[in-house]
Specification:
Elements lengths: L2 H4 L4 E4 L2 E3 L7 E2 L1 E5 L2 E6 L1 H5 L7 E4 L4 E2 L10 H8 L28 H10 L14
Parallel strand pairs: 1-6, 2-7
Antiparallel strand pairs: 1-4, 2-3, 4-5
């Protein structure tokens, strides 16, 4: 195996409008890639000169290439609707009804998930909550 072939790109995208997000070189025409590594970004002639016999070359015909984005966002209507509901999935530390402080021993107050499972799913009364037997 020739050591020079290890440095050759697998893929060259050329003839494009590359947005680099690099203030020193905000735009380019071509990019050379090997595996998951960018080897070079620049003018078509410079980047194409790096190609080897096994390099795939793709002409972008002026299409734009942008860096990958990790898009974290909310769909605000759905997010707002969730805020109006009661979270019965988590099991926070029970609160003392008088002070609002967390009680390590539970203070006799059943957590929300326990109430949901007993009252609605299993139709059993919850001792100490004053809730009637729903059956």
């Amino acid at each position: 195996m020739n050591i020079g072939s290890l440095l050759r790109p697998d893929l060259i995208l050329f003839g494009g409008n590359l947005i680099t997000i690099d203030p020193a070189q905000p735009r380019a025409q071509a990019i050379a890639i090997r595996g998951e590594t960018i080897l070079a970004v620049g003018a078509d002639a410079d980047v194409l000169s790096l190609a080897g016999a096994g390099t795939r070359r793709t002409d972008l015909h002026g299409m734009t290439v942008v860096p990958g984005f990790n898009d974290a966002h909310n769909h605000m209507v759905f997010f707002g609707q969730q805020l109006k509901g009661v979270d019965l999935q988590t099991n926070p530390a029970p609160l003392d009804r008088g002070s609002g402080n967390a009680c390590p021993q539970g203070c006799g107050v059943a957590p929300a998930r326990d109430l949901a499972e007993r009252l609605w799913l299993r139709q059993q009364p919850v001792a100490g909550t004053g809730s009637p037997d729903p059956t």
